[in-house]
Design brief:
Blueprint: E1 2-6, E2 29-32, E3 37-40, E4 44-47, H1 51-65, H2 68-96, H3 105-118, E5 123-127, E6 136-141, H4 144-149, H5 158-171, E7 177-182, E8 191-196, H6 198-209, H7 214-222
Antiparallel strand pairs: 1-4, 2-3, 3-4, 5-6, 6-8, 7-8
Helix pairs in contact: 1-2, 2-5
C-alpha cells in the first residue's frame, strides 16, 4: 500500500490519536467503498497492491532497462521522499504545533515513519549516534520489496534507498544520498541503509563491490576513513 496523491478534503484523525505517533492501519485509513478510494488521515490517497504487482514491476523494469532498473527505482524513491518530506512538515506542524528543528529528532522521525509502517512498508530502527559525524544507519524490517522477491542474492530495495535520500535531504536541508549495504534478499535477516553525502556513498558502494560487508563499512565510517 502506498501514498500517492493529496485529497481535496482534510480527513482529521480521531482526537484521541492526534498526539500519538503509533497506530494501526485499522484506524489510519478511511475506506470509501462507494467511490473506491482509500485516504489516510493526512489526506493522502492510497492504493492497494499485491505481491504480484511488485514482482511484475521489478521484472518489467529489468527487462526494459537492464541493470539501470535499480537506478530508476532509486530516482522514483527520491522524488517520493522529497514530496513526502514536504507534506510531512505540514501535518507535523499542524498536529504538534512544532517543527523538525524545534522537536525531539527521534520523536519527529518516528512520527514520519509510522504511517509507512501502517501502510505496509515495514518497521525501522534508526541509529542517531553518528548524525554528528554526517551520516546515518537505518535498519529496515519486513521490506515490502525484499520480502516479496525473496532471496535473489543481491540488493533490491532501491526504492527505499531513494525514499530515505529524498526525505533526509529535505529534512536536514542538505544534499544527501543513500545506499543499501545489507539486504534481506541477500540472505540477511533485515535490510540496512547508509545515508550520507554522495562522496561517502560512492566510497561505500565501492567497498561493497569489492566484497566488504555492512560491518566492514560501519567500522570504516566510525574510524572516519572517508572525510566529508
Amino acid at each position: 500500500m502506498t501514498s500517492t496523491t493529496q485529497s481535496p478534503q482534510q480527513i482529521a484523525p480521531p482526537l484521541s490519536l492526534t498526539k500519538a505517533c503509533h497506530y494501526s492501519r485499522y484506524n489510519f485509513f478511511n475506506f470509501d467503498l462507494n467511490q473506491g478510494t482509500i485516504f489516510d488521515w493526512n489526506s493522502q490517497q492510497n492504493l492497494l497492491t499485491s505481491e504480484d504487482f511488485i514482482v511484475g514491476l521489478q521484472k518489467g523494469l529489468e527487462h526494459e532497462v537492464g541493470e539501470a532498473s535499480g537506478w530508476l527505482m532509486y530516482l522514483i524513491g527520491t522524488e517520493w521522499g522529497i514530496e513526502d518530506a514536504k507534506i510531512f512538515k505540514i501535518w507535523f506542524e499542524k498536529y504538534y504545533n512544532s517543527n523538525l528543528k524545534e522537536s525531539n529528532l527521534r520523536f519527529a522521525l518516528e512520527t514520519w515513519w509510522w504511517p509507512l509502517t501502517a501502510q505496509g512498508w515495514g518497521k525501522w530502527a534508526i541509529d542517531l549516534d553518528s548524525i554528528k559525524d554526517g551520516f546515518l544507519f537505518i535498519d529496515l524490517y519486513d521490506s515490502a520489496v525484499a520480502k516479496t522477491l525473496g532471496n535473489v542474492g543481491k540488493p533490491v530495495c532501491f526504492l527505499y534507498a531513494g525514499l530515505l535520500a529524498g526525505f533526509f535531504s529535505v529534512a536536514f536541508e542538505r544534499g544527501l544520498s543513500s545506499t543499501e549495504i545489507q539486504c534481506y534478499s541477500m540472505g540477511n535477516t533485515f535490510c540496512r541503509f547508509l545515508i550520507a553525502s554522495e562522496k561517502r556513498i560512492k566510497a561505500a558502494e565501492f567497498w561493497l563491490s569489492s566484497g566488504a560487508t555492512a560491518k566492514d563499512i560501519e567500522k570504516r565510517f566510525i574510524r572516519k576513513e572517508i572525510p566529508e
